[in-house]
Design a protein that fits this description.
Length: 1298
């Protein structure tokens, strides 16, 4: 019969505040051993005492992790614990169990806990072991770095030790706190489930966040932790560290990294004194309620001095209840129950009555495997004793069936609460009244030491932020209570149902005696109590626990591993010559034990290799009898290079910032596989289309392409066209060349980003340009393999604060009807400018759109979605990419490069020029600044194009591919991934227009729809839902305004520009903008800028004057409260796409930004200073590290300019497909009597316009008619039907036709 052992790691601290690292115990009632941690702390010592008293006769060795401290060795510190009054009953009645205690000299601060090789070998030799980890620093307001080192890093090292050196660990129990639920609203109920910290709809990356906080300097880390705690409603750094610990433990559970066991979390509420044996009233420190009682006894709770509401709950739990729950959870894991689903199958399954040790029939206790392990050899199991295991074979058979069903996925982590608020609640008023009655009779003597400690505890805890009623569910504990036998529950009750009056008197008597020197009062009918003082006993040196690694223990032969009977397939990584047979085979082990196991399993592994099918990802789908086979047929592989192989690509907006980065990334990543790359450009500023494309290719952005991928430049072809004209003004030959391409993918990134342009200008540039491009694709490019439209995440500015924008369509609504985008655009274009401005402003106000740019983008998305729904892109699909605030490049080829002063670049210029002075900032420092590097936005765009080119046309098809690939990558996680990415559980978000009488923000969005009344309709369409991808950082790597401001302050304080208006104001996280003060400061700054610009111009510094004006314009517009709104942006689709692409492509084009904001910010500011302000590039230093290196512009020779489409002699294929063409929307017909005359217009030489996306010529409005510019036909006054020449322009008056 195999035995199980318990692992106990001692705590980190001996006095207040204690740090305990919990026990771990395993499941054999005969000769089982244990390894315990946290024994020198309060909770850990109570768990150890209960373990020895309840199961001491059955457990084997009990290992106690303790570090040498204060001149005492680990053995002496463990001896002091065993000599306390808490262990009096164990010393008298269970003295034999004390011989099983072994000290481990180690520390959670070191790798492998600082254990010696002998100690590690002894632990690794144990056949089975369970760990209960209760060690923590409970100093609530410690600096965040200290809290993380004590709690998060200690937990990580312990988990790593278990993973690497204890492959037969049967379970890991982590003791947390119910106060992680303080982030919930008042009077809500904390469920016994994981409660992750969220950035929008994405859980916070605990590893990344912990590393960033530990890597930063202390002051910065504390500031950021304070901001995070405020945003997540966490009242101290202790809770933040505990949240990160829970996330780490849950990750180990989801990834199955505790090879032979499961993982569970125990959350106690406010831990108070013991309620029952062995020492009623005993308390180990002055933390929590003990400190409050001391404060009351010393008279701190005077009139009006309490910050707590008397009717709020005081959720306090006796420490022996916490210990019982921890042992019950360890028993659950040791019984082979690995997740919540398995646990409730066991709870709900009928089980026959069982005989107890005395022969009496007991109730349904089904977790006996903790004490009675399964005998895999086939011999009959002993049924002499009853504990926490399945004794009869029938019940064990049911457990095996449940195990097989759950092997396909890890399920939900087990969480158990030790609390009283839902089973035996008590109010603050009742606790206060009990203390008043007791200390009114038993008044303490005045003691200075007690006064100091008591006041410290009271001063911190007596704060309204700690007074919050959150009920704590104990459903799992009540279910566990039904499973355990009655005799065990008598010794270790899981729920506290006693009298608060007697318990309170016992507690106060103990606090008075142990911490205040009061004599123990007699128990009276008026003040009954059960406390009796037990003195400390010194353990003789020869009776101290032995030290692990020095006892000469031989490693026993490893028990035969049970045959794996899982029915779910397991995908295992294939290495050079072998395949890991099971997930349990991972991790290193000290000594030769693991090598022996591997040698024994070598034969079975060879069989697995013979039966394995290796796919292209290096994953073996095992067909061994131990592992069920997987049949996955014809699963496509998604790759940008393969999807775009031999396909032509048409890019618009390549002379703008985003478009140029897309073009560069396209050539660098997939240029060798691509066909022709057409770049749509219009002649402008005296330069031809070829010359303008040549200027783009000669910029520093394309330096790496010119040096290493020069062959790809020959594939670039200029398209002389303009989005302002039908068929884009392309010649017949150019159209024929496009139509001759076997397959073409269109990436449309051209747009006007002038945010407050008149609505008619915005519509002509954005909506009409998109419509003409879509019409050209529909009518002339039937072989189009996909159309990608670049929009903006700021269409989600209509959502309520702190909501999350889903990667789905966001529809504008009139009541319950979606807006007719074509009709609305035609109406706004048909009326005069004043009427259009009035109506657009009303619409923007009712839909909560902050500018006309967003209104035009909403209409563009509706137009693109219409083409998708109607299937008007004949051979391809349609997708939308929404980048957030686009900033500089984060990585290759040109870190820090930025193409214009829009967005964050303008803010940086404004800061460098001294516009951000006292009270001039309109943004709240704790709100999010969702900014994304431009190379990330370009990578997402290329990923979307590859998705369409691979034949994926809808969101449903996309997630079918995602889930299929997940099955091949790791079949065990297939069920989880399917649940995480449902095909289409909700439809598009709809934005309804507000009632004219209701001036409040209309609630928009999936997250708020149920509570705020937004109708979410389920679209049932044959073509499925349009694909939408976000390029954003708020849910993956968020940055707050305060952090960005602080980075700019540190950088420009050292690298100050030559011309600026004033100094730099140090940022404060407590800053709150006052609107009228901000308005006055902006006016004063505007006057200063005007005067300074004039002076600079007079002295010949025209460039500096222009920078000053441009910087102020960007700052003046953006520095407005209407732009300061935290809306999280979901990137679930992008994360799914990231898992589909191969690693080598992701290295060249990462889809998600996970880098350091500090280094990126310095690189960005160095680039802005050099490119736009004429500052020299500063040196990179440890204090201000950056990666920017200036790359000069290169003039492309005329003979190397890209050729012009339509002039290369390409033969046209068959023209447009037959059949009626769908009408364009809106339809515009020539007005009667239109006369043409030459127009001479000076081209716009604005730098922002020049650097921004390709735009058409601007029409104007006269007497209700739309006047657009069109080129005259080259040979006649009649315009050709299939193309436009580039002749002199004529003015045509067009009337709108419905």
């Amino acid at each position: 019969m195999s035995t199980r052992k318990i692992m106990r790691l001692s705590d980190m601290d001996d006095g207040p505040p204690p740090a305990s690292v919990g026990h771990s115990f395993s499941s054999s009632r005969h000769h089982s051993s244990s390894h315990n941690t946290g024994v020198t702390g309060y909770v850990g010592s109570v768990i150890l005492e209960q373990l020895l008293r309840v199961a001491g006769a059955q457990v084997g060795t009990v290992y106690i992790l303790a570090r040498s401290r204060d001149g005492r060795s680990a053995q002496e510190r463990v001896g002091r614990v065993l000599g306390s009054g808490l262990f009096d009953l164990v010393r008298r009645q269970y003295s034999d169990t004390l011989r099983k205690v072994v000290a481990l000299d180690g520390d959670l601060s070191y790798p492998n806990l600082g254990l010696s090789m002998g100690a590690l070998a002894e632990l690794a030799a144990e056949p089975s072991i369970i760990v209960i980890h209760s060690a923590a620093s409970i100093a609530l307001d410690d600096p965040i770095q200290d809290a993380l080192r004590s709690n998060y890093e200690g937990t990580r090292r312990l988990l790593e030790l278990v993973e690497q050196h204890l492959p037969r660990c049967g379970g890991f129990v982590h003791v947390s706190t119910t106060y992680v639920g303080m982030m919930l609203p008042q009077n809500s109920c904390l469920p016994e489930k994981r409660l992750p910290l969220m950035y929008g709809d994405q859980p916070a990356d605990h590893v990344r966040l912990a590393r960033e906080l530990l890597a930063a300097d202390k002051e910065k880390a504390d500031k950021r932790a304070a901001l995070l705690c405020k945003n997540w409603n966490l009242c101290n750094t202790y809770l933040l560290s505990k949240h990160l610990c829970e996330a780490l433990v849950d990750q180990y559970h989801r990834e199955g990294r505790i090879a032979d066991g499961g993982v569970a979390i125990v959350r106690p509420s406010l831990v108070s004194a013991l309620a029952g044996p062995p020492y009623p009233g005993y308390v180990g420190n002055l933390a929590g309620p003990s400190g409050y009682m001391t404060a009351f006894a010393l008279g701190f709770f005077s009139k009006n001095a309490s910050a707590w509401h008397p009717y709020n709950l005081l959720d306090s739990v006796p420490c022996d209840i916490v210990a019982s729950v921890a042992l019950g959870v360890a028993a659950t894991l040791a019984a082979g129950i690995r997740c919540r689903e398995q646990f409730y199958e066991l709870v709900d399954s009928p089980a026959p009555p069982r005989a107890s040790s005395s022969g009496a029939t007991t109730r349904d206790g089904v977790i006996d495997t903790i004490w009675q392990p399964v005998n895999h050899s086939g011999n009959e199991q002993s049924k002499e004793s009853v504990g926490l295991a399945a004794v009869n074979e029938g019940l064990h058979g049911q457990a095996l069936q449940r195990q097989r069903r759950h092997d396909a996925g890890p399920g939900e982590i087990l969480v158990f609460h030790a609390a009283t608020s839902t089973v035996n609640p008590i109010l603050h008023f009742e606790a206060y009244e009990m203390a008043y009655r007791f200390f009114k009779v038993h008044t303490p003597k005045f003691r200075l030491g007690g006064l100091r400690v008591g006041f410290a505890a009271w001063d911190y805890a007596n704060d309204a932020k700690h007074d919050k009623t959150v009920f704590v569910s104990v459903k799992n504990v009540l279910a566990l209570e039904r499973l355990l036998p009655a005799e065990e529950l008598q010794m270790m009750p899981l729920v506290w149902r006693g009298s608060w009056t007697e318990y309170g008197n016992t507690y106060m008597a103990a606090v008075g005696r142990l911490f205040m020197g009061l004599p123990v009062p007699p128990s009276t009918p008026q003040l009954p109590h059960r406390f009796a003082y037990i003195p400390f006993v010194v353990i003789p040196e020869n009776e101290l626990p032995p030290l692990a690694g020095t006892r000469g223990v031989q490693a026993p032969a490893a028990p035969p591993l049970a045959a794996v009977e899982a029915t779910a397939p397991v995908a295992v990584p294939v290495h050079s010559a072998a395949v890991a047979a099971t997930p349990a085979a991972r991790g290193g082990v000290v000594g030769k034990l693991k090598e022996q196991e591997r040698e024994k399993e070598a034969g079975s592994e060879a069989k697995v290799m013979e039966a394995a099918q290796v796919d292209s990802d290096g994953l073996a789908i095992a067909t061994d009898p131990r592992v069920a086979p997987v049949v996955v047929a014809n699963v496509p592989r998604l790759s940008v290079r393969e999807a775009l192989r031999d396909k032509a690509v048409l890019v618009t907006g390549a002379t703008g910032y985003i478009g140029s980065v897309i073009l560069e990334q396209l050539l660098r990543v997939a240029g060798a596989q691509l066909g022709t790359v057409y770049v749509l450009t219009r002649s402008r500023g005296g330069r031809s289309a070829q010359e303008r494309v040549g200027r783009v290719l000669g910029s520093g952005l394309f330096d790496l392409v010119r040096r290493q991928y020069s062959d790809t430049l020959r594939k670039v072809v200029a398209l002389n066209g303009d989005l302002s004209y039908p068929d884009l003004g392309l010649s017949t030959a150019a159209l024929a060349e496009l139509a001759a391409e076997p397959c073409i993918v269109v990436i449309h990134s051209a747009a006007s980003i002038a945010l407050d342009d008149p609505i008619q200008d915005a519509l002509r540039s954005n909506y009409e340009g998109t419509r003409r491009l879509l019409e050209l694709v529909e009518q002339h490019l039937p072989q189009c393999g996909g159309f990608v439209h670049v929009s903006t995440t700021y269409v989600g500015m209509t959502l309520p604060r702190n909501s999350c924008l889903p990667e789905r369509m966001v529809s504008l609504m009139f009541g319950d009807q979606p807006v007719d985008h074509a009709r609305l655009a035609c109406e706004l274009l048909a009326v005069n400018e004043s009427q259009a401005k009035t109506r657009s402003s009303l619409l923007c106000e009712n839909w909560n759109l902050i500018n006309t740019y967003l209104l035009s983008k909403h209409l563009c998305e509706a137009l693109v979605d219409q083409y998708h729904r109607e299937g008007r892109i004949a051979d391809g699909g349609v997708a939308i990419v929404r980048p957030s605030l686009v900033s500089a490049l984060a990585g290759p080829p040109y870190p820090g490069y930025v193409g214009n002063l829009a967005g964050p670049s303008g803010y940086m210029t404004a800061f460098a020029l001294g516009f951000f002075n006292d009270n001039s900032v309109a943004w709240h420092p704790r709100n999010l600044l969702d900014s994304v590097p431009c190379d990330i936005a370009a990578a997402v765009t290329l990923g979307a194009a590859a998705t369409l080119a691979a034949g994926i046309r809808s969101r449903e098809q996309f997630y079918e591919l995602v889930n299929t690939r997940e099955q091949r990558r790791n079949v065990r996680d297939a069920a989880v991934s399917t649940a995480a990415y449902p095909p289409c559980e909700e439809s598009s978000v709809q934005i309804r227009i507000r009632n004219s009488e209701d001036r409040s923000h209309w609630p928009i969005g999936t997250a708020a729809s149920r509570n705020l009344g937004v109708d979410i309709s389920q679209r049932q369409r044959d073509r499925g839902e349009i694909l939408v991808f976000h390029a954003a950082t708020s849910t993956i790597n968020p940055c707050m305004h305060y952090e960005a401001y602080e980075m700019a302050y540190r950088f420009f304080k050292v690298h100050t520009p030559k011309f600026r208006l004033g100094g730099y104001v140090k940022p404060y996280a407590s800053y709150r903008p006052v609107p009228w003060k901000v308005d006055i400061k902006k006016r004063i700054t505007g006057f200063k800028v005007k005067m300074a610009a004039q002076l600079l111009s007079c002295f010949g510094e025209k460039k500096a004057a222009r920078r000053l004006r441009v910087g102020f314009a960007a700052w003046d517009y953006a520095n407005d409260a209407k732009h300061d709104k935290t809306v999280f942006v979901s990137v679930k689709n992008v994360l799914a796409l990231e898992r589909l692409l191969p690693a080598e492509e992701l290295q060249m084009m990462p889809l998600v930004w996970r880098g350091s904001w500090t280094e990126y910010g310095n690189t960005y500011m160095a680039a802005v200073g050099r490119l736009f302000m004429g500052l020299p590039v500063p040196l990179s230093t440890p204090q201000l590290p950056h990666r920017f290196a200036y790359i000069p512009f290169v003039v492309i020779p005329e003979n190397e300019l890209p050729p012009l489409a339509g002039t290369r002699g390409v033969q046209a294929q068959a023209p447009v497909p037959e059949g009626p063409q769908p009408p364009s929307a809106p339809a515009i017909a020539p007005a009667a009597g239109a006369k043409g005359k030459p127009i001479m217009k000076q081209p716009d030489q604005s730098q922002d316009q020049e650097l921004e996306e390709e735009l058409g010529s601007e029409p104007k409005v006269m007497e209700g008619k739309v006047v657009v510019k069109a080129p005259a036909a080259p040979d006649s006054a009649v315009m050709p039907q299939n193309g436009w020449g580039r002749a002199p322009q004529v003015e045509l008056t067009m009337a709108v036709a419905w």
